[in-house]
Design goal:
alpha/beta; Aconitase, domain 3; 3 domains; eight-stranded mixed sheet; six-stranded mixed sheet; 23 helices; binds alpha-methylisocitric acid; binds iron/sulfur cluster
């Protein structure tokens, strides 16, 4: 039978399949520093000496602003842990995990699990690349398979080619416009059709990267001649294999995009799916323009920006900065003169890191309009609560930087041609390769902010919970566990970071939760969209949150809740309407429900009004919850 590309990779990595899930062998893992410290503490707790994957890489790219000792201590811990467990260590300054991984390690046909939601960037090179919580990545490093709910495979046919000034970012913004931030849940997007060959690997990666904003499990492109040329230019010819869907492969759903009809688009505040044509925004005053992030900071992106800026000056009212995606990109830009053009135009050059994308500096002015080539514009993520953040392509961003107002780049005249080199400048000196047999006694240094993992005991049979908060649809993990330069340094210290849970939504939430005893949160659809940060489950767990009653959940966050023993309960519309902050919810027959015998019993209020709730979880997830979380479950398995 003709197979999709997704089916081929899944089949090659299948360890087990149940009605609901595939268990997949994981070839490669990646972590970044903001999720990595927890992942390695978890790996340490599992108790193995070495990772069992083909390749594991630990990147430092998020917490690079060192305003105190915390981040530097984390970097040292990560470097020691990498050496000890047999992991490559990409030093701070080497670049954003997804960009560097694509350049130096990504390989068609492989599976990649990363403790970052934008791991699907690797789909641009034909990998099945999936984002997960740190504990799932730790388990994969320990050789355990990773489980995904059986996905629907969506065939996205790209026809024709993009017009001048329209770019890969506009393709994924068009999909977000059509499908919304919930549209990809439970789906893998597989790109095909004649338009595919017109896109370079980094352009494909822009699209698969932002598939995360659709809520997709992942997105993938075939591996073709374009992929071969990219890998050859990276000096990695041996990593190439051809890979595509069979002729006549059948997809669960189909989408067609005529690239020739696309135009420059922008995602408006405060959601990646609030997409409008840039021409509809023309004239809106812009205060800040930022170019970078794992979505749009490849060499081609920045060369295009440099070419547009050549012999021009950034508008006097615009603060303009770029953060190249990797050291390779920065080194090549400096060698080919592009960096000079950017500096001469007035551009501020930031470190090769996530930087402003995660609120690590460059917060916009009060109420400021910020145009960014990034992938998320959730309210407050920039560091300025009332900032208006728009997401666009580099072409649109640079046009806005020059004009000081929203500008359709097609108004700038002819698009400057940008040629890609036959060979990238390869310099892996910032990647430390672990010794073959590191001493098992090698010490892992940890600073005072690196605290032991909090533990949850076994699951209770009955719980009486206070509703601590009632929330709308599409609550993000940035809402649950905010990031930014002040909070991110606390990622290795759950007790300290838990003080900020829901702080952007309700001041004093953490004190309220701690003083109320066991509690729950009530939410609408797509609860926990966005980041993979398991802190959005771990920190509420520390505050005594035992369950989330939501209309629906985002994939990674749902797994993180289960991994830390928080019950993800689906509530119907009537139940959602009924439950208010301060109400009491009683969960009964939890053990029976987790044994798969009879449904969970959920009642509200003193009169015990019965709510229509379900625990829609797989057999494996029931086992994890029964143990009070994945770590307890794995420890029991490892102990036999
Ligand atoms: C993000 O873009 O939100 C992050 C920061 O990269 C997160 C990971 C984290 O919270 O550390 C993600 O996307 O998973
Ligand atoms: Fe870093 Fe931003 Fe990409 Fe997250 S989305 S990995 S913060 S650049």
């Amino acid at each position: 039978m003709a197979r999709t590309l997704t089916a081929k990779i899944i089949e090659n990595h299948l360890v087990n399949a149940t009605d609901a899930e595939y268990a997949l062998r994981i070839d490669q893992t990646l972590t970044q520093d903001a999720t990595g410290t927890m992942a390695y503490l978890e790996f340490e707790a599992i108790g193995l000496d070495r990772v069992k994957t083909e390749l594991s890489v630990s990147y430092v790219d998020h917490n690079t602003l060192q305003t105190g000792f915390e981040n530097a201590d984390d970097h040292r811990f990560l470097q020691d842990a990498a050496a000890r467990f047999g992991i490559r260590f990409s030093r701070p300054g080497n670049g954003i995990c997804h960009q560097v991984h694509l350049e130096r390690f990504g390989a068609p046909g492989k599976t990649l699990l990363g403790s970052d939601s934008h791991t699907p960037t690797g789909g641009g090179i034909g990998m099945l690349a999936i984002g997960a919580g740190g504990l799932d990545v730790a388990a994969a490093m320990a050789g355990m398979p990773f489980n995904i709910p059986k996905p629907k495979v969506v065939g996205v046919t790209l026809n024709h080619s993009l017009p001048p000034w329209v770019s890969a970012k506009d393709i994924i913004l068009e999909l977000l416009r059509r499908l919304t931030v919930k549209g990809g849940v439970g789906r893998i997007f597989e790109y095909r059709g004649p338009g595919v060959k017109t896109l370079s690997v980094p352009e494909r990666a822009t699209i698969t990267n932002m598939g995360a904003e659709l809520g997709a499990t992942t997105s993938i492109f075939p591996s073709d001649e374009v992929t071969r040329v990219f890998l050859a230019a990276q000096g990695r010819d041996e990593a190439w294999i051809p890979l595509a869907a069979d002729e006549g492969a059948v997809y669960d759903e189909q989408i067609e995009i005529d690239l020739a009809t696309l135009e420059p688009l922008a995602a408006c505040p405060h959601s990646p799916d609030a997409v409008k044509p840039v021409r509809d925004l023309a004239g809106l005053k812009v205060d800040q323009v930022l170019i970078g992030s794992c979505t749009n900071s490849s060499l081609k992106d920045l060369m295009r920006v440099a070419a547009v800026l050549r012999d021009r000056t950034v508008h006097p009212d615009v603060s303009f900065a770029i953060a190249p995606g990797s050291r390779q990109v920065l080194e090549m830009l400096s060698a080919n003169g592009g960096l000079r053009d950017i500096i001469a135009s007035g551009g501020r050059i930031l470190e090769t890191a996530c930087g402003p994308c995660i609120g690590m500096g460059q917060a916009p002015s009060s109420g400021g309009v910020s145009v960014r080539t990034f992938n998320r514009n959730f309210k407050g993520r920039s560091g300025t609560q009332d900032a208006q953040v728009y997401l666009t392509s580099p072409e649109v961003a640079v046009a806005c930087a020059l004009k000081g107002v929203f500008t359709d780049p097609r108004d700038l005249g002819e698009v400057p041609e940008v040629l890609m080199p036959d060979a990238f400048l390869v310099n892996d000196s910032m990647i430390i390769v672990p010794e073959k047999k590191p001493s098992a006694a090698a010490a892992i240094r940890r600073g005072p902010n690196i605290r032991p993992l909090p533990k949850r005991g076994p699951m209770e049979d009955t719980l009486s919970l206070m509703v601590l908060l009632k929330l709308r649809d599409n609550i993000t993990t940035d809402d649950i566990m905010p990031a930014g330069s002040k909070i991110l340094p606390l990622r290795s210290n759950i007790e300290a970071i838990s003080r900020y849970v829901f702080s952007g939504i309700e001041a004093g939430f953490s004190e309220h939760a701690l003083s109320s005893g066991p509690g729950c949160v009530v939410a609408g659809e797509n609860y926990g969209q966005g980041s993979s940060r398991e802190h959005a489950a771990l920190a509420p767990m520390h505050l005594g949150v035992k369950a989330v009653l939501a209309r629906s959940f985002a994939r990674i966050h749902r797994s993180n809740l289960i991994n830390f023993g928080i019950l993800p309960i689906l509530v119907d519309e009537a139940g959602y309407t009924l439950l208010e902050k301060g109400a009491t919810v009683t969960l009964g027959n939890i053990h029976g429900a987790l044994a798969g015998e009879s449904p969970i019993e959920v009642t509200a209020g003193p009169d015990g009004t019965r709510l229509n709730c379900t625990l829609d979880i797989s057999g494996r997830e029931r086992e994890i919850l029964r143990h009070g979380g994945l770590l307890n479950y794995i420890s029991e398995k490892v102990r036999g």
